[in-house]
Amino acid sequence: MSETTHGASYASAGVDIEAGDRAVELMKEWVKKTQRPEVLGGLGGFAGLFDASALKKYERPLLASATDGVGTKVDIARRLGVYDTIGHDLVAMVMDDIVVCGAEPLFMTDYICVGKVHPERVAAIVKGIAEGCVLAGCALVGGETAEHPGLLGPDDFDVAGAGTGVVEYENLLGPDRIRSGDAVIAMASSGLHSNGYSLVRHVLLDRAGMALDQQVDELGRTLGEELLEPTKIYSLDCLSLTSTTRVHAYSHITGGGLAANLARVIPDGLHATVDRSTWAPGAIFDLVGKAGSVERLELEKTLNMGVGMMAIVPQESVDVALATLADRGVESWVAGEITDRGDHTTGAELTGSYAK
């Protein structure tokens, strides 16, 4: 019988409700692993519930919120058919923005948009998000999976998320705390993280014609494995740092690059100088630059160049900060300092040449 004879249905329009239900069942076990004591109810309600009475221990609690996605990195996951790591990227992009002000991540929600619901694929994406939430110390309290046939191809998808954290007012980090003479500590990235993939894809895949399954000697693995390396989640590392020593501010190095993101936390009248010679960016950054003849300044305003998070601390806190991060397995080093130029200029700049 034709559709005209029977009448149209949601299924005939391309939306499979049963597949969506199956996806929810598959993801429940992963969401459960993220639960905190403050979370009420389970997956499947219309809203996630978080017991706000937990905030009574604060004198003046400030709620911090952020939302983000992972950009065109999802295209790499789609091409490789690997879906259980992209969630780490999503959590990192959201929760590492929240921790910058000193806030403890509390909970997160996600939004997954697909052209066609493949239950196992959606569950794999949620698995990655749940694993990321565990690494960030937050709960995954809910989300939405939307099927958009006709707008997205059957294998196309995108992800976004929103998170909430809390910080005591008197412990709020940011520009007001920064002083001339403070040290800038860099924390190594795990690679490209989740920014600049439009440039990376254009240069390596389109212009250079490289294949994702191509073994690249200087990377020590395939190009696809390098490009899909999950974004490092620094949330608990930063919270540990603020609990063991004085921290004045953090800067999450995302879109716009190192200098632009660091400048966002520098107060009027002060200047941050970062010395490139204190580290050597990973091979992937050199590969992108050479393959696309991309100028250094263009690379630096697009990619993180090997630094995923920066902490600004007083000089007397440097040794403890570096030791704390080392104990947590985070590669870190003093990369620069805060100065008062006396000319009321504000911002951040990179000087020197990268180490080899």
Automatic annotation (TrEMBL):
Keywords: Ligase
EC number(s) stated in the UniProt entry for this protein: 6.3.3.1
Organism: Streptomyces citrinus
Top-level lineage group: Bacteria
The protein's name: Phosphoribosylformylglycinamidine cyclo-ligase
